[in-house]
Design a protein that fits this description.
Blueprint (H helix, E strand, L loop, with lengths): L1 H20 L3 H22 L4 H22 L2 H25 L1 E3 L2 E6 L4 E2 L1 H19 L6 H19 L4 H17 L8 H16 L1 H4 L11 H11 L10 H12 L11 H4 L11 H34 L3 H25 L17 H19 L6
Helix pairs in contact: 2-3, 2-13, 3-15, 4-5, 4-6, 5-6, 5-7, 5-14, 5-15, 6-7, 7-14, 11-13, 13-14, 13-15, 14-15
Length: 386
Protein backbone atom coordinates (compact mmCIF):
# COMPACT_ATOMS: atom_id res chain seq x y z
CA UNK A 1 0.00 0.00 0.00
CA UNK A 2 2.88 2.30 0.83
CA UNK A 3 4.45 1.66 -2.59
CA UNK A 4 1.16 2.38 -4.41
CA UNK A 5 0.84 5.63 -2.49
CA UNK A 6 4.35 6.63 -3.50
CA UNK A 7 3.58 5.85 -7.16
CA UNK A 8 0.42 7.98 -6.92
CA UNK A 9 2.35 10.88 -5.46
CA UNK A 10 5.00 10.51 -8.15
CA UNK A 11 2.36 10.64 -10.90
CA UNK A 12 0.78 13.71 -9.30
CA UNK A 13 4.17 15.46 -9.19
CA UNK A 14 4.83 14.56 -12.83
CA UNK A 15 1.40 15.87 -13.82
CA UNK A 16 2.07 19.10 -11.95
CA UNK A 17 5.42 19.45 -13.72
CA UNK A 18 3.71 18.95 -17.11
CA UNK A 19 1.17 21.65 -16.24
CA UNK A 20 3.91 24.07 -15.22
CA UNK A 21 5.94 23.26 -18.32
CA UNK A 22 3.00 24.36 -20.48
CA UNK A 23 3.76 27.97 -19.58
CA UNK A 24 6.33 30.31 -21.06
CA UNK A 25 7.27 32.11 -17.88
CA UNK A 26 8.52 35.43 -19.29
CA UNK A 27 5.34 35.72 -21.35
CA UNK A 28 3.18 34.65 -18.41
CA UNK A 29 4.84 37.26 -16.16
CA UNK A 30 4.04 40.00 -18.67
CA UNK A 31 0.43 38.83 -18.99
CA UNK A 32 -0.01 38.72 -15.20
CA UNK A 33 1.37 42.26 -14.88
CA UNK A 34 -0.99 43.48 -17.62
CA UNK A 35 -3.92 41.71 -15.94
CA UNK A 36 -3.22 43.30 -12.55
CA UNK A 37 -2.84 46.68 -14.24
CA UNK A 38 -6.11 46.08 -16.13
CA UNK A 39 -8.07 45.27 -12.97
CA UNK A 40 -6.53 48.25 -11.19
CA UNK A 41 -7.56 50.76 -13.84
CA UNK A 42 -10.96 49.07 -14.19
CA UNK A 43 -11.49 49.61 -10.45
CA UNK A 44 -10.84 53.31 -10.99
CA UNK A 45 -12.92 53.57 -14.18
CA UNK A 46 -16.04 52.14 -12.51
CA UNK A 47 -15.35 53.95 -9.24
CA UNK A 48 -15.15 50.85 -7.05
CA UNK A 49 -15.96 47.14 -7.10
CA UNK A 50 -19.37 47.12 -8.77
CA UNK A 51 -20.68 44.37 -11.06
CA UNK A 52 -18.46 45.45 -13.96
CA UNK A 53 -15.31 45.02 -11.88
CA UNK A 54 -16.51 41.62 -10.66
CA UNK A 55 -17.38 40.58 -14.21
CA UNK A 56 -13.96 41.64 -15.45
CA UNK A 57 -12.25 39.62 -12.71
CA UNK A 58 -14.31 36.60 -13.81
CA UNK A 59 -13.40 37.30 -17.45
CA UNK A 60 -9.72 37.23 -16.55
CA UNK A 61 -10.14 33.84 -14.86
CA UNK A 62 -11.89 32.44 -17.94
CA UNK A 63 -9.19 33.89 -20.20
CA UNK A 64 -6.50 32.28 -18.03
CA UNK A 65 -8.20 28.89 -18.32
CA UNK A 66 -8.41 29.33 -22.11
CA UNK A 67 -4.72 30.31 -22.13
CA UNK A 68 -3.75 27.16 -20.23
CA UNK A 69 -5.84 24.90 -22.47
CA UNK A 70 -4.33 26.41 -25.62
CA UNK A 71 -0.83 26.19 -24.14
CA UNK A 72 -1.34 22.48 -23.42
CA UNK A 73 -2.19 21.68 -27.07
CA UNK A 74 0.96 20.75 -29.02
CA UNK A 75 1.54 22.48 -32.38
CA UNK A 76 1.14 19.21 -34.39
CA UNK A 77 -2.39 18.89 -33.01
CA UNK A 78 -3.08 22.57 -33.69
CA UNK A 79 -1.84 22.03 -37.23
CA UNK A 80 -4.38 19.25 -37.83
CA UNK A 81 -7.19 21.26 -36.24
CA UNK A 82 -6.52 24.47 -38.20
CA UNK A 83 -8.64 23.80 -41.34
CA UNK A 84 -11.47 22.41 -39.19
CA UNK A 85 -11.53 25.51 -36.97
CA UNK A 86 -11.48 27.76 -40.03
CA UNK A 87 -14.36 25.96 -41.78
CA UNK A 88 -16.42 26.02 -38.58
CA UNK A 89 -15.76 29.75 -38.23
CA UNK A 90 -16.84 30.51 -41.80
CA UNK A 91 -19.99 28.38 -41.38
CA UNK A 92 -20.87 30.32 -38.23
CA UNK A 93 -20.28 33.61 -40.09
CA UNK A 94 -22.67 32.43 -42.79
CA UNK A 95 -25.12 31.62 -40.00
CA UNK A 96 -24.82 35.22 -38.80
CA UNK A 97 -25.38 36.43 -42.37
CA UNK A 98 -28.68 34.55 -42.72
CA UNK A 99 -29.91 33.96 -39.15
CA UNK A 100 -27.98 36.44 -36.99
CA UNK A 101 -29.46 38.72 -34.34
CA UNK A 102 -29.42 42.46 -35.01
CA UNK A 103 -28.58 44.95 -32.28
CA UNK A 104 -27.92 48.69 -32.71
CA UNK A 105 -27.95 48.36 -36.49
CA UNK A 106 -25.37 45.54 -36.64
CA UNK A 107 -25.90 41.81 -37.10
CA UNK A 108 -22.98 40.20 -35.27
CA UNK A 109 -24.48 37.61 -32.93
CA UNK A 110 -25.71 34.07 -33.48
CA UNK A 111 -28.06 32.32 -31.06
CA UNK A 112 -27.24 28.59 -30.92
CA UNK A 113 -29.97 27.85 -28.39
CA UNK A 114 -27.58 27.01 -25.57
CA UNK A 115 -25.33 30.04 -26.10
CA UNK A 116 -25.20 33.40 -27.88
CA UNK A 117 -21.86 33.85 -29.64
CA UNK A 118 -20.03 36.37 -31.82
CA UNK A 119 -18.31 34.19 -34.47
CA UNK A 120 -16.19 37.03 -35.87
CA UNK A 121 -13.99 36.89 -32.75
CA UNK A 122 -13.20 33.25 -33.52
CA UNK A 123 -11.79 34.22 -36.92
CA UNK A 124 -9.06 36.34 -35.33
CA UNK A 125 -7.49 33.03 -34.34
CA UNK A 126 -8.86 30.73 -37.06
CA UNK A 127 -7.61 32.79 -40.04
CA UNK A 128 -3.91 32.87 -39.03
CA UNK A 129 -4.14 29.21 -38.04
CA UNK A 130 -5.42 28.08 -41.45
CA UNK A 131 -3.00 30.32 -43.34
CA UNK A 132 -0.05 29.00 -41.31
CA UNK A 133 -1.34 25.44 -42.01
CA UNK A 134 -1.58 26.18 -45.74
CA UNK A 135 1.95 27.59 -45.98
CA UNK A 136 3.33 24.71 -43.88
CA UNK A 137 1.64 22.28 -46.26
CA UNK A 138 3.20 23.98 -49.30
CA UNK A 139 6.56 24.78 -47.70
CA UNK A 140 9.40 24.72 -50.21
CA UNK A 141 7.16 24.92 -53.30
CA UNK A 142 5.53 28.32 -52.86
CA UNK A 143 4.36 30.06 -56.03
CA UNK A 144 2.27 33.12 -56.82
CA UNK A 145 -0.78 30.86 -56.99
CA UNK A 146 -0.27 29.88 -53.34
CA UNK A 147 -0.33 33.51 -52.23
CA UNK A 148 -3.52 34.06 -54.25
CA UNK A 149 -5.16 31.07 -52.54
CA UNK A 150 -4.07 32.46 -49.17
CA UNK A 151 -5.55 35.83 -50.09
CA UNK A 152 -8.84 34.10 -50.91
CA UNK A 153 -8.84 32.28 -47.56
CA UNK A 154 -8.40 35.68 -45.92
CA UNK A 155 -10.92 37.53 -48.10
CA UNK A 156 -13.89 35.22 -47.38
CA UNK A 157 -14.18 35.92 -43.61
CA UNK A 158 -13.10 39.54 -44.08
CA UNK A 159 -15.99 40.26 -46.46
CA UNK A 160 -18.51 38.42 -44.27
CA UNK A 161 -17.45 40.41 -41.19
CA UNK A 162 -17.51 43.74 -43.05
CA UNK A 163 -21.09 42.97 -44.09
CA UNK A 164 -22.27 42.66 -40.47
CA UNK A 165 -20.97 45.52 -40.31
CA UNK A 166 -18.01 45.26 -37.93
CA UNK A 167 -15.11 47.14 -39.48
CA UNK A 168 -12.93 47.01 -36.37
CA UNK A 169 -13.00 43.21 -36.11
CA UNK A 170 -12.67 42.87 -39.89
CA UNK A 171 -9.50 44.97 -39.83
CA UNK A 172 -8.04 42.85 -37.03
CA UNK A 173 -8.83 39.64 -38.90
CA UNK A 174 -7.30 41.09 -42.05
CA UNK A 175 -4.18 42.24 -40.17
CA UNK A 176 -3.50 38.85 -38.54
CA UNK A 177 -3.99 37.06 -41.85
CA UNK A 178 -1.87 39.56 -43.74
CA UNK A 179 1.06 39.12 -41.34
CA UNK A 180 1.02 35.35 -41.91
CA UNK A 181 1.13 35.91 -45.68
CA UNK A 182 3.92 38.48 -45.33
CA UNK A 183 6.01 36.32 -42.98
CA UNK A 184 5.55 33.40 -45.39
CA UNK A 185 7.59 35.24 -47.99
CA UNK A 186 5.45 37.87 -49.69
CA UNK A 187 7.82 40.32 -51.35
CA UNK A 188 7.86 43.80 -49.85
CA UNK A 189 8.17 45.23 -53.36
CA UNK A 190 4.65 44.05 -54.11
CA UNK A 191 3.39 46.15 -51.19
CA UNK A 192 4.99 49.41 -52.31
CA UNK A 193 2.19 50.22 -54.83
CA UNK A 194 -0.38 49.66 -52.05
CA UNK A 195 1.46 52.06 -49.74
CA UNK A 196 1.65 54.64 -52.53
CA UNK A 197 -2.08 54.30 -53.27
CA UNK A 198 -2.86 54.58 -49.56
CA UNK A 199 -0.77 57.74 -49.20
CA UNK A 200 -2.38 59.29 -52.28
CA UNK A 201 -5.84 58.34 -50.97
CA UNK A 202 -5.21 59.96 -47.58
CA UNK A 203 -3.85 63.07 -49.28
CA UNK A 204 -6.92 63.39 -51.50
CA UNK A 205 -9.18 62.79 -48.51
CA UNK A 206 -7.58 65.62 -46.55
CA UNK A 207 -7.50 67.94 -49.57
CA UNK A 208 -11.16 67.45 -50.48
CA UNK A 209 -12.43 67.06 -46.92
CA UNK A 210 -14.86 69.97 -47.09
CA UNK A 211 -16.54 68.67 -50.25
CA UNK A 212 -16.74 64.94 -49.54
CA UNK A 213 -17.89 65.30 -45.93
CA UNK A 214 -21.09 67.08 -46.93
CA UNK A 215 -24.27 65.27 -45.76
CA UNK A 216 -25.51 64.59 -49.30
CA UNK A 217 -22.27 62.87 -50.43
CA UNK A 218 -22.50 59.06 -50.49
CA UNK A 219 -19.18 57.22 -50.00
CA UNK A 220 -20.66 54.05 -51.56
CA UNK A 221 -18.19 51.57 -50.05
CA UNK A 222 -18.69 52.73 -46.46
CA UNK A 223 -21.76 52.97 -44.26
CA UNK A 224 -22.94 56.42 -43.24
CA UNK A 225 -21.68 56.06 -39.66
CA UNK A 226 -18.25 55.00 -40.96
CA UNK A 227 -18.13 58.09 -43.17
CA UNK A 228 -18.94 60.26 -40.13
CA UNK A 229 -16.11 58.62 -38.16
CA UNK A 230 -13.55 59.46 -40.82
CA UNK A 231 -14.83 63.04 -41.22
CA UNK A 232 -14.89 63.50 -37.44
CA UNK A 233 -11.29 62.30 -37.26
CA UNK A 234 -10.20 65.06 -39.63
CA UNK A 235 -12.09 67.77 -37.73
CA UNK A 236 -13.79 66.76 -34.43
CA UNK A 237 -14.79 70.37 -33.77
CA UNK A 238 -17.40 70.22 -36.55
CA UNK A 239 -19.74 68.34 -34.19
CA UNK A 240 -18.25 68.74 -30.69
CA UNK A 241 -21.39 67.62 -28.83
CA UNK A 242 -22.24 64.81 -31.21
CA UNK A 243 -19.98 62.64 -33.34
CA UNK A 244 -16.80 64.44 -32.25
CA UNK A 245 -17.58 64.22 -28.53
CA UNK A 246 -15.71 60.94 -27.92
CA UNK A 247 -12.47 62.11 -29.53
CA UNK A 248 -12.50 65.62 -28.01
CA UNK A 249 -13.18 64.45 -24.45
CA UNK A 250 -10.60 61.70 -24.75
CA UNK A 251 -7.89 64.12 -25.86
CA UNK A 252 -8.86 66.56 -23.07
CA UNK A 253 -8.48 63.76 -20.51
CA UNK A 254 -5.09 62.69 -21.85
CA UNK A 255 -3.82 66.27 -22.00
CA UNK A 256 -5.09 67.15 -18.52
CA UNK A 257 -3.10 64.25 -17.04
CA UNK A 258 0.12 66.10 -17.84
CA UNK A 259 3.45 64.46 -17.10
CA UNK A 260 2.73 62.90 -13.72
CA UNK A 261 -1.05 62.41 -13.83
CA UNK A 262 -3.76 63.45 -11.38
CA UNK A 263 -3.46 60.33 -9.24
CA UNK A 264 -5.32 57.06 -8.85
CA UNK A 265 -9.12 57.55 -8.92
CA UNK A 266 -8.60 61.32 -9.18
CA UNK A 267 -9.39 61.74 -12.88
CA UNK A 268 -12.13 64.34 -13.27
CA UNK A 269 -12.94 63.65 -16.92
CA UNK A 270 -13.60 59.99 -16.16
CA UNK A 271 -15.43 60.30 -12.85
CA UNK A 272 -17.62 63.18 -13.99
CA UNK A 273 -18.73 61.02 -16.97
CA UNK A 274 -17.17 63.17 -19.69
CA UNK A 275 -15.38 60.19 -21.25
CA UNK A 276 -17.86 57.93 -23.09
CA UNK A 277 -17.14 54.17 -23.06
CA UNK A 278 -14.52 54.76 -20.37
CA UNK A 279 -14.45 51.08 -19.36
CA UNK A 280 -14.12 49.73 -22.91
CA UNK A 281 -12.70 51.46 -25.98
CA UNK A 282 -11.54 54.65 -24.22
CA UNK A 283 -10.01 53.21 -21.06
CA UNK A 284 -6.57 54.47 -22.10
CA UNK A 285 -7.87 58.03 -21.63
CA UNK A 286 -8.75 57.15 -18.01
CA UNK A 287 -5.30 55.67 -17.47
CA UNK A 288 -3.46 58.61 -19.05
CA UNK A 289 -5.43 61.17 -17.04
CA UNK A 290 -4.60 59.45 -13.76
CA UNK A 291 -1.01 58.34 -14.43
CA UNK A 292 0.15 60.95 -16.93
CA UNK A 293 2.82 60.76 -19.60
CA UNK A 294 5.10 58.57 -17.50
CA UNK A 295 2.31 56.07 -16.91
CA UNK A 296 1.42 56.01 -20.60
CA UNK A 297 5.05 55.37 -21.56
CA UNK A 298 5.27 52.59 -18.96
CA UNK A 299 2.20 50.93 -20.46
CA UNK A 300 3.58 51.18 -23.98
CA UNK A 301 6.86 49.63 -22.78
CA UNK A 302 4.93 46.69 -21.31
CA UNK A 303 3.06 46.20 -24.57
CA UNK A 304 6.35 46.49 -26.46
CA UNK A 305 7.89 43.75 -24.29
CA UNK A 306 4.81 41.58 -24.86
CA UNK A 307 5.08 41.92 -28.64
CA UNK A 308 8.85 41.43 -28.54
CA UNK A 309 8.49 38.23 -26.50
CA UNK A 310 5.90 36.93 -28.97
CA UNK A 311 8.16 37.66 -31.94
CA UNK A 312 11.10 36.00 -30.16
CA UNK A 313 8.98 32.88 -29.61
CA UNK A 314 8.03 32.91 -33.29
CA UNK A 315 11.66 33.29 -34.34
CA UNK A 316 12.75 30.34 -32.18
CA UNK A 317 9.90 28.05 -33.30
CA UNK A 318 10.93 24.67 -34.69
CA UNK A 319 8.38 24.52 -37.52
CA UNK A 320 7.15 26.82 -40.27
CA UNK A 321 3.66 26.56 -38.80
CA UNK A 322 4.89 27.72 -35.39
CA UNK A 323 6.88 30.62 -36.83
CA UNK A 324 3.98 31.94 -38.90
CA UNK A 325 1.30 31.46 -36.24
CA UNK A 326 3.49 32.86 -33.46
CA UNK A 327 4.40 35.91 -35.54
CA UNK A 328 0.74 36.55 -36.32
CA UNK A 329 -0.29 36.29 -32.64
CA UNK A 330 2.45 38.71 -31.60
CA UNK A 331 1.47 41.20 -34.28
CA UNK A 332 -2.19 40.86 -33.31
CA UNK A 333 -1.28 42.30 -29.90
CA UNK A 334 0.52 45.14 -31.69
CA UNK A 335 -2.42 45.93 -33.98
CA UNK A 336 -4.85 45.95 -31.02
CA UNK A 337 -2.67 48.48 -29.16
CA UNK A 338 -1.84 50.62 -32.19
CA UNK A 339 -5.46 50.96 -33.35
CA UNK A 340 -6.93 51.54 -29.89
CA UNK A 341 -4.41 54.15 -28.74
CA UNK A 342 -4.49 55.72 -32.20
CA UNK A 343 -8.25 56.27 -32.05
CA UNK A 344 -8.16 57.45 -28.40
CA UNK A 345 -5.49 60.03 -29.18
CA UNK A 346 -7.29 61.22 -32.33
CA UNK A 347 -4.94 59.98 -35.06
CA UNK A 348 -7.19 57.11 -36.21
CA UNK A 349 -10.98 56.92 -36.61
CA UNK A 350 -13.05 55.28 -33.89
CA UNK A 351 -13.55 51.64 -34.93
CA UNK A 352 -14.40 49.90 -31.67
CA UNK A 353 -11.14 48.02 -30.96
CA UNK A 354 -10.47 47.29 -27.25
CA UNK A 355 -7.15 47.81 -25.49
CA UNK A 356 -5.64 44.38 -24.66
CA UNK A 357 -6.08 43.30 -21.02
CA UNK A 358 -7.42 46.72 -19.96
CA UNK A 359 -10.75 47.18 -21.75
CA UNK A 360 -13.84 45.57 -20.27
CA UNK A 361 -15.19 42.61 -22.22
CA UNK A 362 -15.20 38.84 -22.00
CA UNK A 363 -15.03 37.91 -25.68
CA UNK A 364 -11.94 39.98 -26.44
CA UNK A 365 -10.17 38.72 -23.31
CA UNK A 366 -10.95 35.13 -24.29
CA UNK A 367 -9.43 35.72 -27.74
CA UNK A 368 -6.33 37.32 -26.22
CA UNK A 369 -6.01 34.45 -23.74
CA UNK A 370 -6.10 31.89 -26.55
CA UNK A 371 -3.51 33.92 -28.48
CA UNK A 372 -1.21 33.94 -25.46
CA UNK A 373 -1.74 30.20 -25.01
CA UNK A 374 -0.84 29.51 -28.63
CA UNK A 375 2.41 31.43 -28.18
CA UNK A 376 3.19 29.35 -25.09
CA UNK A 377 2.42 26.13 -26.95
CA UNK A 378 4.85 27.14 -29.71
CA UNK A 379 7.46 28.21 -27.15
CA UNK A 380 7.45 24.92 -25.20
CA UNK A 381 7.23 22.55 -28.18
CA UNK A 382 10.23 20.38 -28.97
CA UNK A 383 9.90 17.94 -31.92
CA UNK A 384 10.65 14.32 -31.12
CA UNK A 385 14.09 13.28 -32.32
CA UNK A 386 14.19 10.53 -34.92
Amino acid sequence: AHTAQERGMKRAVQQGIRILNAFDWPLLALLVIMSVLGLTIMHSAVGGTDWRFADQARNFLIAFVALWVAAALPPPLLLRLSPIVYVMGVILLLGVEFFGETSKGATRWLDLGFARIQPSEMLKIAVPMVLAWYFQKNQGTLRIRDFLVAALLLAVPFVLIVRQPDLGTALLVFATGFFVIYFAGLSFRLLIPLFVLGAVGVGLLVHYEEQICQPDVDWVLLHEYQKHRVCTLMDPSVDPLGKGFHTIQSMIAIGSGGIYGKGYMMGTQAHLDFIPERTTDFIFAVFAEEFGLYGGIMMLVLYGLLVARGLHIAQQAHTQYGRLLGGAMAMMFFVYVFVNIGMVTGILPVVGVPLPFLSYGGTALLTLGVAGGLLMSISRYRPART
